[in-house]
């Protein structure tokens, strides 16, 4: 499952960046690029919540396979339309929505599977291993997307994702049947209400959700990358890929050297401090872009290598900090939540993890359209630091969370 997820995720990241570049080429609008993410928000929320209920009622292996099939079909249609020259902004939006909804179900289900395969004391290490996977696929995928789009166009890039996605089926097919343990509640309103009631009683889980929403809403500049490569930093699609890959490089590096972090038992404090560092890195990224407004290259196709390197460094720090936070958040989710409830809570968790960046895309895209490209990350970094600090002070129980005695 890990190998299959890595290869499929590599192709998925390839497509994410390619769709952004494709929409920007068709429209020339940063706001239109941000709407790719926003359009899939409501379907993703519904799919994540319902998918979590399904994962708590049926065989998780079969459910993960079905979600992977839908994702593969939507990507294959995207590739076919592009090769035939029939792609439109509407089609790109629609297929991205289907893809994100299916991914939401698949991610919730696969994450709920992990605690059934390994003992609790290895969950933090497994989360770090997953961070290495994310680092590899995000680091290679966007950079490769920029090169392929610049050299060959969009059709081949989408097609590579179609091929890589096949590895997901092999990984999931090798798993045993994995039905949820404990009392099973069939999907529906009763199951959903039961999950929400559990979340209301779980102050630690609820607090980490809120912190992640804050970080991703105000500290997610991904939607600005196509415009940065075109009009501010220079370098076009290759710069877009490099900026995205820098985040992944930080994720990869922090996972690779996360042994001591994984053994730190106070996960609530770890989440708070990691997100504060994340906010500071995004603030620095905005400051670098502000400097870049005074140093724009006369030839916009010519990259400003010094500023690109500085921006990549700030983004790498943000990726590393976000990954450390993710290790603690995932471990808390998997260790403190019972198996019969894990699918529903993972569904909500996926909605938070995937929905936050979409809100961030709307925040960054809309604010950049009204002000300047540097303003959303500069303001957002400050907001992340302040809001997360205030929230942690309001919930002292969260700061005292002990991984050796997990309590939701």
TrEMBL record:
Its main location: membrane. Keywords: Cell membrane, Membrane, Transmembrane, Transmembrane helix, Transport. The chain crosses the membrane at residues 7-24, 30-51, 63-84, 90-110, 122-150, 156-175, 209-228, 234-257, 277-298, 304-324, 345-366, 372-392. It is a multi-pass membrane protein. InterPro entries: MFS_dom, MFS_trans_sf, TM_effector. This is MFS transporter. It is found in: Cell inner membrane. Residues 1-179 form the Major facilitator superfamily (MFS) profile domain.
């Amino acid at each position: 499952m890990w190998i299959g997820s890595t290869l499929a995720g590599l192709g998925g990241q390839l497509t994410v960046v390619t769709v952004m570049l494709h929409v920007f080429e068709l429209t020339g609008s940063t706001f239109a690029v941000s709407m790719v993410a926003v359009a899939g928000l409501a379907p993703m929320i519904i799919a994540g919540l319902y998918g979590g209920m399904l994962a708590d009622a049926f065989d998780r292996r079969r459910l993960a396979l079905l979600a992977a099939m839908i994702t593969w079909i939507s990507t294959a249609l995207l590739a076919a339309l592009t090769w035939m020259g029939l792609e439109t902004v509407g089609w790109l939006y629609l297929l991205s929505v289907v893809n994100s909804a299916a991914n939401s179900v698949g991610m919730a289900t696969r994450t709920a599977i992990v605690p059934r395969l390994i003992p609790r004391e290895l969950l933090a290490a497994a989360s770090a291993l997953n961070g290495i996977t994310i680092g590899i696929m995000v680091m290679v995928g966007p950079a490769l997307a920029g090169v392929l789009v610049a050299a060959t166009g969009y059709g081949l890039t989408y097609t590579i994702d179609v091929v890589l996605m096949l590895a997901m089926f092999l990984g999931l097919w090798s798993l045993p049947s994995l039905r949820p343990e404990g009392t099973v509640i069939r999907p529906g309103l009763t199951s959903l209400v039961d999950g929400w009631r559990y979340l209301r009683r779980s102050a630690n889980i609820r607090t980490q959700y809120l912190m992640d929403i804050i970080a991703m809403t105000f500290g997610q500049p991904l939607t600005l990358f196509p415009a940065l490569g075109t009009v501010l930093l220079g370098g076009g699609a290759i710069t877009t890929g490099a900026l995205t890959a820098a985040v992944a490089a930080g994720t990869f590096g922090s996972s690779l050297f996360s042994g001591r972090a994984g053994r730190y038992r106070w996960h609530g404090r770890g989440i708070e401090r990691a997100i504060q560092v994340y906010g500071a890195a995004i603030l620095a990224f905005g400051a670098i872009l502000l400097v870049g407004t005074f140093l724009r290259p006369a030839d916009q196709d010519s990259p400003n290598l010094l500023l690109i390197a500085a921006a990549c460094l700030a983004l790498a720090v943000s990726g590393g900090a976000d990954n450390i936070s993710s290790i603690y958040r995932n471990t808390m989710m998997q260790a403190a939540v019972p198996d019969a409830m894990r699918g529903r809570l993972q569904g909500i968790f996926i909605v938070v993890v995937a929905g936050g960046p979409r809100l961030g895309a709307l925040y960054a895209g809309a604010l950049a359209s009204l002000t300047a490209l540097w303003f959303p990350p500069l303001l957002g970094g400050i907001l992340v630091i302040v809001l997360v600090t205030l929230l942690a002070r309001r919930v002292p129980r969260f700061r005292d969370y002990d991984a050796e005695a997990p309590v939701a």
